[in-house]
Write a structure and sequence with these properties.
By secondary structure, this protein is mainly alpha-helical. Helix content is 58%, strand content 9%. The chain has a two-stranded antiparallel ribbon with strand order 1-2. Strand 1 (49-52) and strand 2 (55-58) form a beta hairpin. The longest helix has 24 residues, at 59-82. 0% of the residues are buried.
């Protein structure tokens, strides 16, 4: 699966027309929903496997990827917009 360059899909999101509080609220809601899903998985679910981006992956590995992806975005926000202000995943 080939992903389009950011320049092709980013403008369609309309992020430039949204407020920072709106974007933060949306991110927080999506994160809370994801955490709730993972918290409620039965123990056997963590080793189940599926496909993401045309690659096999376990539920546990996918959770790890999601955490890393969120951390990456927070680091980008910190570096580009917040300077030395420390950003923590809550």
């Amino acid at each position: 699966m080939t992903r389009p360059p950011v320049a092709e899909y980013s403008p369609a999101l309309g992020a430039a027309d949204r407020t920072l509080p709106d974007i933060v609220s949306e991110w927080r809601n999506a994160r809370q929903s994801t955490l709730a899903l993972f918290r409620r998985l039965p123990p056997g679910a963590w080793s189940r496997r599926g496909t993401a981006s045309d690659q096999p992956i376990s539920v546990g590995a996918l959770a790890y990827v999601i955490v890393g992806h969120a951390r990456h975005h927070l680091e980008v926000v910190e570096a580009r917009y917040l300077g030395d202000l420390e950003v923590a995943i809550a």
